[in-house]
Design goal:
With 532 residues, the chain is of the alpha/beta class. It has 19 helices and five strands. Strands 1, 2, 3, 4 and 5 form a five-stranded mixed sheet that branches.
Length: 532
């Protein structure tokens, strides 16, 4: 006879009549797909974003066979990218589809790690998965191949190895060479793909050590310590091979020797930067996302965002409630604080390689990619901390809050990216005659804080190739550094732009200032004010 009281009575039914319609799996899948499809649509309509602008320009101007030669710092990634770009006119769709699949797989993997580390809270694993997928801590979901392959895919391979090693550690049977072999291939492949695999494997080493410290049996601890040492040695060996085969002349700031060139002051900043990055990943990003929520009745986008947030919250609450009814209720929280505490060193260690290379770990948007290797651990820490601090009967509250933030952030991020891409593209027609009337290069300064390759690719996306090659688009701040203020500028007569094989070198005929006020005609005039 089952003497346990039904766990669903401890939380209200937020399904609004859907509770009997959806199973737990269906509710969880609906939440993940709702977020993933929204972001995928945003990625398609805002393409190219961030470094994808460089990719789009290179494909149009040099062809896909030039990609690998410009990726000398990541040779394996270069060959993968060249193969992926073989679909011609369908490249955009393929990039977006692959990006969506990798992000969805990354989210599912995050949920699996959560269930493995905190089985007493496994009914809440969907919350950790959705936090990983949502553009809150990480904000590169709308960028495709140039982030998804070297960062997401390398991290996915590393966490797959970690999950295998953790699964194997719970077995009482002798060591299984097949599982260890698969884990070795996965871990090595991630490192061979990019340096993100190194950070992920270091996170795995700390997780294995932390889990070992919570085990009571000597044999289990010994096995986990050995696996952690084995993973660390494998990572170091493969990275040495990676460094030997890579050509860092393309990007000397990613060479291992780069960290040795830091001044003493830079080294002293590393601990503070890593701690700040960990805080942002666990708490700060969610506080900022909560503070960004607004509801303006004259703004359709914010109304839709709020509705989107409520929908996501309902799906998460429904999925958790169903899982608990199915018997995945909380067990006793044995040694829970110590098991939660071991994740903090894993987060710090995962951020350390990037901080040592001079990358700030608190950056937003494109810079948030440096937090990808620690995201599953950070999400697990955030969710478990919230659940631990709240009474069991009120745990639906943090679930609903996380769901609302996830939904709102996903919609607003997508909407904002699409609107900005359309605003950038709006200058296409007005700028085209100016470029066509000269034989030399034209530099256009626009009021959008975006990458130069991204701006150029968006503005010239429908232009003939010969016109595209004569234009370079920059934002205001870089233009001020390069050419000076508009009232005092003295532009050079020669343009020299070289970005990973993209070249704009030659006579500079025009330096233009472009204003694109919303709902008004585009204004184009010389960037430099001439004195009378």
């Amino acid at each position: 006879m089952n003497t346990r009281a039904p766990t669903s009575t401890s939380s209200p039914n937020l399904g609004f009549g859907w509770s009997g319609t959806f199973s737990a799996t269906q509710a969880e899948a609906a939440a993940l797909l709702l977020i993933c499809i929204t972001l995928a649509v945003g990625a398609f309509l805002s393409f190219p974003l961030y470094d994808d602008g460089w990719l789009a320009l290179v494909l149009r101007e040099s062809g896909r066979h030039s990609l690998a030669q410009h990726m000398g710092d990541r040779p394996v990634f270069g060959f993968l990218l060249e193969w992926l770009a073989s679909f011609g006119a369908a490249n955009r769709f393929v990039f977006v589809l692959l990006n969506a699949v990798l992000w969805l797989g990354f989210a599912i993997e995050s949920g699996m790690l959560f269930r493995k580390l905190f089985p007493e809270f496994k009914a809440y694993s969907i919350v950790a998965a959705c936090l990983t997928l949502a553009p809150i801590v990480l904000q590169t979901q709308l960028s495709t191949a140039l982030v998804a392959i070297p960062a997401n895919f390398a991290t996915i391979l590393g966490y797959a190895a970690i999950l295998l090693l953790l699964r194997h550690s719970h077995e009482d049977k002798p060591t299984r060479p097949l599982l260890l072999g698969i884990a070795a291939v996965l871990a090595a492949s991630g490192v061979a793909l990019s340096e993100y695999g190194v950070a992920t494997n270091l996170v795995g080493c700390v997780i294995l050590i932390g889990v070992a410290l919570t085990f009571s049996t000597r044999m289990a601890r010994r096995q986990l310590f050995l696996r952690a040492a084995w993973l660390f040695a494998l990572t170091g060996a493969v990275y040495l091979l990676f460094a030997k085969t890579a050509d860092f002349n393309v990007r000397p700031d990613v060479a291992p020797a780069h960290m040795l060139r830091h001044e003493v002051g830079k080294w002293m900043e590393v601990p503070f930067d890593v701690i700040a990055g960990a805080w942002h990943a666990m708490i700060g990003a969610y506080a900022a996302a909560l503070g960004n929520i607004t509801l303006a009745w004259d703004s359709k986008s914010t109304i839709v965002g709020v509705l989107f947030g409520f929908q996501t919250a309902i799906l998460l609450c429904l999925g958790v409630q169903k899982r608990r009814v199915e018997g995945l209720a909380e067990d006793r929280l044995e040694r829970f604080p110590s098991r939660l505490a071991v994740l903090l060193p894993a987060i710090l260690v995962g951020l350390l390689p990037f901080s040592l290379m001079g990358r700030a770990t608190t950056l937003l948007e494109f810079g948030s990619r440096f937090r990808i290797p620690i995201m599953p651990v950070a999400a697990a820490t955030t969710v478990c901390l919230a659940l631990y601090l709240v009474r069991p009967s009120f745990r639906w509250i943090p679930v609903a809050m996380f769901g609302f933030i996830i939904g709102y952030a996903s919609w607003i991020s997508t909407y904002s990216a699409i609107q900005q891409t359309r605003a950038i593209a709006a200058v296409q027609g007005a700028l085209k005659p100016y470029v066509a009337q000269t034989d030399g290069y034209t530099v256009a300064v626009v009021p959008f804080k975006r990458f130069e390759t991204e701006l150029t690719a968006n503005v010239t996306s429908t232009w003939p190739l010969e016109l595209e090659k004569r234009l370079w688009v920059v934002a205001e701040d870089p233009a001020r550094i390069q050419f000076g203020d508009r009232s005092t500028c003295r532009p050079s007569s020669v343009l020299d732009i070289q970005v990973r094989g993209l070249a704009r070198v030659g006579k500079l005929d025009q330096l233009l200032w472009v204003e694109a006020p919303s709902g008004k005609s585009v204004l184009i005039e010389p960037y430099c004010h001439t004195s009378n």
